[in-house]
Design brief:
Shape of chain A: globular
Structural class of chain B: mainly beta
Number of strands of chain B: 18
Largest sheet of chain A: 7 strands, mixed
Mean pLDDT of chain A: 97
Largest sheet of chain B: 14 strands, mixed
Helix content of chain A: 25-40%
Shape of chain B: elongated
Strand content of chain B: 35-45%
Largest interface: A-C, 64 and 64 residues
Helix content of chain B: under 10%
Radius of gyration of chain B: 20 Å
Order of helices and strands of chain B: EEHHEEHEEEEEEEEEEEEEE
Distance between the termini of chain B: 61 Å
Chains: A alpha/beta (about 575), B mainly beta (about 270), C alpha/beta (about 425)
Number of strands of chain A: 25
Radius of gyration of chain A: 22 Å
Oligomer: heterotrimer
Strand order of the largest sheet of chain A: 3-2-7-20-21-22-23
Low-confidence stretches of chain B: 1-8
Number of helices of chain B: 3
Distance between the termini of chain A: 47 Å
Chain lengths: ~575, ~270, ~425
């Protein structure tokens, strides 16, 4: 099918198009330079952007499903009946898979990455991917607490480390390297934690700093499209901004081909000053200042929005701390040799000082980081809020007036312990196009694979919003971004006037690093021992079979200086 | 035809009488039966309101003979619904009701008065499970017996009943007031297992007997005037107190969860 | 032909180290599996062909006719019930859920009569847990409560708990302490270090007593609770607190005794509170090999783990109302489709009586008591032997079942898929 989108005001930052009237031509799912007999969409002066890219959203797999099973009281919210084309939808913070796909598409998003795939449970993540309609997906396996990773980093065996990561990408059909509270997952196997980068992981005689640095180096040797993707140690503790800055500094000697060497996620939770909850305050300025003056780090905020939601992370000890504070129902799931997770409901209240400051910090980071190319819009769905709150967040970033309205109703601690009220910056549509499309695609390394832009040869993933660039009413902005006029996915119109009109299956991106050195053989021998002695499944049954990835997009990489 | 009798509340301006046409097994889900929903409607409009029976939509008029007396009234407080007959296969009567009155001369199926926040429901018969679930206000009177999960919460939710009052003349089943946070439940007869389970506010008074009262109780007040047939081992005896002119033993708990609820009981085995 | 690393389609342990020898499309030997697993894999009496009941008797027919009749029954039902799913693949579960949505049915699985209380308890308090390998490598205190896995999960103790060695448990059995709580001395209790006998129905009280002792208010506990002396309870709490890594497994002895979900919630709460002192995990001992898988698929596709009522298009989840036995006991449903399960053998009499009254469709590889009540019988290939697909172990680890021999019959998934197509055809979609 061919499409011609005409009269749109196009924001395509990767191709330096910023609010210009440009025709977009589509053929066979791609952006092309010529069409013969297209269906024409008259965008009528409305905003046109590449399809949205969410680089960090917990949409699928063990954790999210545990969240659904834990919270039928959330499941009964936002219920929609089955319709001719669409399956029944349930849930607000723990939506079912179908709702997840439809709701993203309705917001003009077409690519979503699950950033915490436990390798042993990767098959589950991929099973759910298959049931998330429309959007393209990728899953980033959790590797930092894996026994073999820690052993190889400890012994300094870079070749085996690299070989094992390459094997893991294949085995999990994974996209990159996720680090969560490095070393803390293993410590949590004994109910303990690591707090600082130099703490020793019990029984493994290794520190978080060593794990992070080792994985950053291996990541670059493997030439992975994405950098290491890190949830820093010390999440959610007053005074943790020190750890965060030290984590950034750890990898500044690592060189990459042409992107960041570390993506630090949901950085809002890592930007706290003070020493207790009573004096906890925003250090967004210190974090932003570091990011502004260094090019090896990118971040996403993990914005908190007021209301009820569900927290879920591989940071097991942090979830337990949350449980001890709130005493709300708590699920934990440690995964043998690899990782763990915790899940607990949370209510972010505007009447609570800490929650108000958290809300402020997310916005502060997005506003104080000068270059939108160094960040992206996230809520760490569903941790800070469900992804369906993005349009509201964007309206806050674009309107100081709207921020001031909210500020009137929040806890007064925000005046002294946050910076938000002193920030005048209002993001424009070009900034938003970068932070919701171009930048996350670039950070993930997907821009070279047709995502995040509308250049010739790119995927025809396009959003048209029922708003023109001059309209600055924040409520109009929110409403237009919530219900795309059109969402086009792979050249097919999937949303029209905010309603789903087609439900294609999305594709799954994974990375296949080529690494054939001698080290692979030796690594496989080590791995066989791990399976024989310690895993509860056999090695032959571990790798995710092709049947679970029916629409794969395999990205091959070549390793640098493989032995 | 019938008339609004002088016995009716003086404020009643509109009376809707629903007489079940025949008995059936597949339950009807009729949360539409509530005063606010009938305001401003005439007989034929009420007859054509849609309810669900299994997976099919049917009109209220195919389930009930509908009679309407009195002038249309936008003031929902002055509307009374009379269900004249057995409604033991009609679920959700009065769900989310805010005002007015419903009288059922028969028994009702599950979820009667669930989530109601105002008005009054009188059941001249038995109430099936989850009557008054997550109730916020108003009053439910059950002249017969109530089943399990009276005034309880929904699965996974931390707040059950938060306000209003439920009176049961007969007995009630298991888990009365589960996750209760406010309001009052009064049971004339006995109850089953674990009344006041997970309760964190409000008051439950049981005139008859109970089994294992107060499990996971955090706060609130639970009174068992009859016998406690089995007692939990996690409550602390605080002494005797006179309540409603009866001398009762006062306990606090559930200490298994560090709770500080108050449990008054009359007699227990071997303590 | 020898096939290694085969998954055993029997219990929730989902062993994946079975060796099977196949000759001429027949399994001739099964190694490593337990007796029940071997027996299941070696084969049973099968249903020969699709059947339809006429004048009280089942007669053989074609899939086409049986599927058409099944689709007609389901399409014309006001309140169809779809139950079973314990012993089939997730792929079949998915198709079943889609069919339920299409016809406005209640869909429920065997969880409803075994571990539903566990699901409800988790919704109340959560579940601090882990995968089985974590227990193998770390646990030094193992507790079984109301679970006789020596019989229900025969390899559980040798693979994951008492009799295995792991990274931090190199001493094996010697370095572990095993406690069994039950109402009678089971075979599992025979090989435990400690057996604690509880008066039937008193699990809740015993758990409350353990928790109140743990909370430091043990002075309120009477001298004996549920038949267990207070000193014993104190000793157990001390042992729990001083373990390095403890785990509590519970079975139907806890989930199905008085107080059902609240027993389980009480047990989970005990474990949760123990985490203030040491590392402790809790895990339901799930029965059928893929009963967990249905809960997973149902949760991600409907938002709820079981007992989902699609009558009104919008899913409504309310166990006690939308769960199979409750629906049957109230005589609510007007047809039923049973997949890979035998309710006639296991349900209360009142439920079975209603099943006998309504049009009943069965999909199963083997004849059973439900076949005798069924009006339409659709024979299926055996998941994990004749059909590959996904199954979830009791701890949520997903694995891929193998196909070992060629099937004669259609798979559950294919049968359901054809019923769904036929339903759509009848409805003119």
């Amino acid at each position: 099918m061919e499409l011609l989108i005409t009269n749109g005001i196009v924001y395509d930052p990767i191709n330096q198009i910023s609010g210009e009237k440009v025709d977009i031509l589509v053929k066979d799912g791609k952006i092309v330079s010529g069409v013969k007999n297209p269906k024409t969409i008259d965008a009528g002066g409305r905003i046109v952007m590449p399809g949205g890219v969410d680089m960090h959203t917990h949409i699928a797999g063990g954790k999210m499903n545990v969240g659904r099973m834990l919270r039928p009281e959330d499941g009964r919210r936002c219920i929609e009946s089955r319709k001719k084309l669409t399956r029944a939808c349930t849930g607000y913070s723990v939506p079912n898979t179908f709702a997840t796909g439809y709701r993203y598409a309705k917001m003009g998003y077409t690519t979503t990455f699950e950033p915490a795939m436990p390798p042993l449970l990767a098959r589950h993540t991929h099973e759910e991917f298959r049931d998330i309609p429309i959007v393209d997906k990728g899953g980033i396996p959790l590797l930092d607490n894996h026994w073999l990773i820690m052993e190889y980093v400890k012994s300094g065996d870079m070749d085996k480390l690299t070989a094992f990561i390459a094997w893991m990408m294949n085995a999990t059909k994974g996209y990159g390297i996720k680090i969560v509270n490095a070393g803390g997952g293993e410590a949590w196997g004994w109910g303990k934690n690591v707090r600082n980068l130099d703490d020793i992981v019990p029984n493994f005689d290794i520190t978080p700093a060593e794990i992070i640095h080792g994985l950053a180096e291996a990541n670059e040797r493997l030439n992975l499209p994405h950098s290491i993707h890190i949830h820093c140690n010390n999440l959610g503790h007053p005074g943790n901004y020190d750890t965060t800055l030290a984590t950034f500094d750890l990898v500044k000697d690592v060189t990459s081909h042409n992107r960041q060497v570390m993506h630090a996620t949901h950085i809002q939770y890592h930007s706290y000053g003070g020493s207790t909850w009573a004096d906890m305050h925003s250090k967004a300025d210190a974090i932003a200042s570091y990011v502004n003056s260094h090019d090896h780090v990118t971040v996403d905020p993990g914005q908190v929005m007021f209301g009820d939601t569900t927290t879920m992370t591989a940071d097991g000890p942090m979830e337990y701390e949350l449980h001890m504070m709130s005493k709300r129902k708590w699920t934990n799931k440690d995964v043998e040799l690899e990782t763990g997770s915790g899940i607990i409901p949370i209510f972010y209240s505007r009447k609570v000082s800490v929650n108000s400051i958290q809300w402020a910090i997310g916005l502060e980071l997005a506003l104080l980081i000068k270059s939108p190319w160094k960040t992206a819009i996230t809520t760490d769905h569903p941790n800070g809020a469900p992804f369906t709150r993005y349009p509201e967040i964007i309206s806050l970033l674009m309107s100081k007036k709207r921020r001031e309205e909210v500020l009137k109703g929040v806890h007064s601690a925000i005046n002294k312990r946050a910076i938000i009220s002193s920030i005048d910056r209002e993001l424009n549509w070009a900034d938003i196009a970068i932070m919701t499309r171009a930048s996350p695609a670039k950070i993930l390394g997907l821009d070279k694979h047709g995502k995040g832009h509308l250049g010739i040869g790119a995927d025809a993933d396009i959003a048209i919003y029922d708003i023109s660039p001059e309209e600055d009413d924040p409520r109009k902005i929110q409403s237009a971004l919530s219900h795309a006029k059109y969402t086009i996915k792979g050249g097919e119109i999937v949303v029209k006037d905010g309603e789903i009109v087609a439900v294609p299956e999305g594709r799954t991106y994974w990375v296949n690093p080529e690494f054939d050195g001698e080290a692979t053989k030796a690594m496989l021998e080590d791995l066989a021992v791990k399976f024989k002695e310690y895993y509860s499944v056999s090695l032959a049954n571990y790798p995710v079979q092709d049947a679970y990835v029916p629409h794969p997009v395999e990205i091959k990489t070549r390793c640098k200086n493989a032995s | 035809m019938f008339r609004i009798r002088s016995k009716s509340k003086p404020g009643v301006k509109m009376l809707v009488k629903l007489t079940p046409k025949k008995a059936f097994n597949i339950p009807v889900e009729a949360e539409v039966i509530k005063p606010g929903n009938f305001a401003g409607k005439g007989k034929s409009e009420i007859e054509s309101i849609i309810v669900w029976q299994g997976n099919k939509e049917v009109m209220l008029g195919s389930i009930f003979d509908v009679e309407v007396e009195g002038v249309d009234d936008k003031d929902k407080k002055k509307i009374k619904i009379l269900i004249e007959g057995d409604a033991s296969r009609i679920k959700r009567i009065g769900e989310r009701m805010t005002s007015g009155e419903i009288i059922i001369n028969g028994s009702v199926d599950m979820h009667c008065g669930a989530l109601m926040s105002g008005g009054k429901i009188i059941i001249n018969g038995d109430a099936d499970a989850w009557a008054g679930r997550e109730m916020r206000g108003g009053e439910i009177v059950v002249e017969g017996n109530a089943s399990n999960y009276l005034g309880a919460g929904y699965w996974g939710a931390e707040k059950g009943m938060r306000g209003g009052i439920i009176r049961v003349k007969g007995s009630a089943g298991n888990y009365v007031g589960e996750h209760m946070r406010g309001g009052e439940i009064i049971i004339g007869g006995s109850v089953g297992l674990l009344p006041g389970l997970n309760m964190s506010g409000g008051k439950i008074v049981i005139e008859g007997d109970a089994v294992l009262p107060g499990g996971e109780m955090k706060s609130g007040m639970l009174v068992v005037k009859g016998k406690v047939l089995e007692m939990l081992p996690s409550f602390r005896f605080e002494g005797k107190e006179v309540l409603d002119s009866i001398e009762l033993k006062k306990f606090t708990g559930d200490l298994a969860r560090g709770g500080s609820g108050t449990l008054y009981i009359n007699s227990i085995p071997e303590v | 032909m020898i096939i290694t690393d085969v998954l055993c389609p029997f219990c929730g342990d989902l062993c994946d180290d079975i060796i099977v020898e196949v000759e001429g499309n027949k399994i001739i030997e099964v190694k490593e599996a337990c007796e029940t697993g071997v027996s299941k894999m070696m084969g049973h009496e099968r249903i020969a062909a699709p059947m339809i009941r006429e004048n009280g008797k089942l007669r053989e027919t074609t899939y086409e006719e049986a599927i058409t009749k099944a689709a007609e029954i389901l399409t014309n039902s006001l309140r169809p019930l779809m139950y079973g799913w314990g012993s089939t693949t997730c792929e079949a579960d998915k198709k079943g859920i889609e069919l339920a949505e299409e016809i406005g049915a209640i869909i429920d699985n065997t969880t409803s009569v075994c571990h539903a209380p566990s699901v409800l308890a988790i919704q109340n308090v959560g579940l601090p847990s882990c995968t089985l390998g974590q227990i193998k490598n770390r646990a030094d205190l193992i507790i079984y409560w109301g679970s006789n896995q020596a019989e229900a999960h025969p390899r559980h103790m040798s693979k994951y708990t008492s009799f295995t060695k792991g990274f931090f448990t190199k001493e094996g059995r010697k370095g572990k302490h095993v406690i069994v709580f039950d109402v009678r001395k089971t075979t599992t209790a025979e090989v435990a270090d400690d057996f604690v006998q509880i008066i039937p129905g008193d699990d809740y009280r015993v758990l409350s007593a353990l928790r109140v002792i743990l909370a430091g208010a043990g002075d309120v506990v009477p001298s004996s609770v549920g038949g267990v002396p207070k000193e014993k309870l104190i000793e157990i709490v001390d042992r729990m607190k001083s373990s390095r890594f403890g785990v509590l497994f519970f079975g139907m002895g806890l989930t199905q005794s008085r107080g059902k979900p609240y027993n389980v919630a009480n047990a989970i709460s005990l474990v949760r509170e123990l985490n203030a002192h040491t590392k402790f995990a809790v895990m339901p001992m799930r029965g059928h090999f893929n009963v967990t898988g249905f809960n997973q698929v149902c949760a991600w596709s409907t938002g709820f783990a079981f007992a989902v009522d699609f009558a009104r298009g919008k899913p409504w989840y309310n166990p006690g109302e939308t769960s199979t036995v409750d629906v049957l006991n109230r005589g609510e449903c007007d047809s039923a489709l049973i997949v890979a399960s035998d309710p006639a053998a296991h349900f209360p009499r009142k439920s079975v009586e209603h099943l006998a009254k309504i049009p009943l469709i069965q999909i199963d590889p083997c004849p059973n008591l439900t076949t005798e009540l069924a009006d339409i019988v659709l024979p299926a290939a055996i998941a994990g032997i004749e059909v590959e697909g996904t199954a979830y172990r009791m701890d949520g680890v997903p694995l891929r079942l193998r196909k070992l021999i060629e099937p004669v019959h259609l798979s559950d998934e294919e049968i359901l898929s054809r019923i769904l197509s036929k339903v759509r055809e009848i409805r003119g979609d």
